[in-house]
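Cross-check.
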Amino acid sequence: MRLILKAVSHAYDGLHALGPVDLTVGAGRIVAVVGPSGCGKSTLLGIAGGLIRPTSGEVLSAGAAPEGCLNPLTYVFQDFALLPWRT
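Predicted model, tokenized:
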């Protein structure tokens, strides 16, 4: 599956937080997003993973997921976002 972000940007309550970002990730590629605190890494990954709707721009995915794959994107939260009672 290929992931494409076109001119993606995001703002929280009018405060510019990200973008515009253009990014293409080829099928089968592994990508690490690194940067200082507050630079928009979590926002970018949230948009790419479909957890956050961008203020502007578009997110496209092309191709088929690998056979047997429930979700072709993997997202590792920095906090216990899904099951806060689990450690």
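The longest strand covers residues 2-12. The chain has one domain: 2-62. Passed to J.P. for a second look.
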